[in-house]
Design brief:
The chain is an alpha/beta fold. It is 27% helix and 24% strand. The strands form four sheets. Strands 3-2-4-1-5-6-7-8 form an eight-stranded mixed sheet, covered by helices on one side. Strands 9, 10, 11, 12 and 13 form a five-stranded mixed sheet that branches.
């Protein structure tokens, strides 16, 4: 009998970042002592630094916790992690990460079937401001993708607003918790009003607010879709920009002078040829979402060049709806930090992430439920002998269950999709599927015209090829 090698299941990674003595070890110890989190699952605990706190495995509420130390950043390789996977077969991984190491070292080394499920940043409130001033690049690196920032050793004599502003300058998404020495925890409730009116007939962006506006628009594009914006930018005219368009943007600094880069967005303007290269112009324009057709199922340099302008212009996600055309989107996305993709037909997360070398590039995939389809057809035709019911017929397969999305002929992957609390969760997806199945939410199958929308604007850019 042939040896059948089964693909390893997805392994969730819980990432704990922060500088030395920030409280990571204490939190992980308490977490593994809590039977609500740890019930004996095979757990790999990766320790990337040695602090004064030490783990006490005998106090864990269950066994099966395997501790491994990584002493040097260069030792954190994919081969090493794969070897640990083969040795220990972990069901999940907890990483106490070294604050002096850049996160790309970890993200670039994760095995294909490992995915960061949650990322927490722990900071000592007594040193946080000075760390930010003296190690800005490392601080920004840890803040930019954290879901929760915990400032421990906090007391009311500290300037909470200063800490808040430092964090919000990098991330407007994460939660912020202040932990007192007695264990009391208070969550940040400081409102962050934008310095411009997003509900005004024309949103006026001052020079000093460009970076804030650009980041906010990138994080919440629907907020600006269909809105008119007035902003001062430099214009770039490029051969690989779609006809009738130019790039408008500015150089911005994330954390330090070495980090300055040009960010911009494609703008459609009939008289674009009259623009002087790199000149400053005042723009009044409407923001909208765009659709383009590649006219083929494979990627190539021309399509990549077009997608380069999308990502460079602030596009967050490209839905590469055409099999192998994902290579062009991935080649463009990997040039821009944080750029994402959506796969198609099957769960393409492993393929796209593996091709690009960026482990979390794929947000989700619009899948044909091949497993559900094959099981149904084999059951009906072979086991139930219902050949006449299907032979010679063409059917459109869709939803067959409002309760279990994985039974449907169209679906998104439950495991690899990057769900996010407060944005779109697995529970939200299940509720949406149920509403579609019940008919509460209706989806048109008309392919003769672009869909009518109410909350976003969709512009057809035509064929790229």
């Amino acid at each position: 009998m042939a040896d059948k090698k089964q693909q390893a299941p997805d392994v969730p990674v819980y990432l704990f970042t922060g500088f030395l003595e920030a409280g990571k070890t204490k939190f992980i110890q308490e977490t593994l002592e809590d039977n609500r989190f740890h019930k004996g699952e095979r757990t790999l605990l990766l320790l990337c630094e040695d602090g004064e706190e030490v783990y006490e495995p005998d106090r864990f509420c269950a066994g099966n916790v395997y501790v491994r130390n990584v002493d040097e950043e260069s030792d954190l390789t994919r081969d090493y992690l794969l070897a640990l996977q083969d040795e220990l077969h972990p069901e999940r991984v907890l990483v106490e990460y070294n604050g002096m190491w850049m996160l790309d070292s970890l993200y670039g080394s994760l095995p294909e079937n490992w995915a960061v499920a949650q990322e927490f940043l722990f900071c000592d409130a007594t040193t946080f401001v000075s760390y930010n001033a003296n190690m800005r690049q490392l601080t920004v690196d840890k803040l930019k993708s954290a879901e929760l920032v915990v400032l421990n050793r906090y007391n009311d004599s500290m300037d909470r607003m200063e800490m808040h502003r430092i964090i919000r300058a990098i991330s407007r998404r994460c939660d912020i918790a202040y932990e007192y020495t007695d264990g009391k925890v208070v969550y940040d409730d400081i409102e962050d009003p934008l310095p411009f009116d997003v509900d005004a007939p024309v949103i006026e962006i001052e020079d000093r607010d460009f970076a804030l506006w650009y980041r906010d628009m990138s994080e919440e594009p629907k907020k600006y879709d269909g809105k008119t914006v007035e902003v001062k930018c430099r214009c770039l005219v490029r051969k690989n920009v779609p006809k009738g368009c130019f790039i408008a943007g500015r150089h911005i600094m994330t954390c330090c002078v070495q980090d300055i880069q040009f960010v911009g967005m494609p703008c459609k303007y009939d008289d674009y040829k009259s623009l002087e290269q790199r000149s400053w112009i005042n723009i009044t324009a409407k923001v909208n979402v765009k659709y383009a057709y590649g006219n083929q199922f494979n990627g190539d340099p021309d399509i990549t060049a077009a997608m380069d302008t999308w990502y460079a212009g602030g596009t967050q996600v490209v839905f590469a709806c055409g099999g192998g055309i994902f290579t062009s989107a991935a080649d463009a996305a990997k040039k821009v930090s944080g750029a994402k993709m959506i796969g198609v037909d099957v769960d393409q997360a492993g393929v796209i992430n593996g091709y690009s070398g960026v482990e979390d590039m794929t947000v989700t995939s619009a899948m044909k439920g091949l497993a559900a389809t094959v099981k149904t057809m084999l059951t009906e035709t072979i086991l139930n002998n219902n050949w006449d019911k299907f032979g010679g017929k063409v059917e459109s397969l869709g939803l067959v269950s409002g309760d279990d999305p994985e039974l449907n002929y169209v679906q998104i992957p439950m495991t690899s999709t990057q769900w996010a609390d407060g944005k779109f969760t697995q529970a939200d997806y299940k509720a949406l599927v149920k509403a579609m199945f019940d008919g509460t939410v209706k989806v048109s199958n008309d392919i003769t015209a672009m869909p009518k929308t109410t909350t976003i604007t969709v512009e057809d850019l035509g064929n790229l090829k």
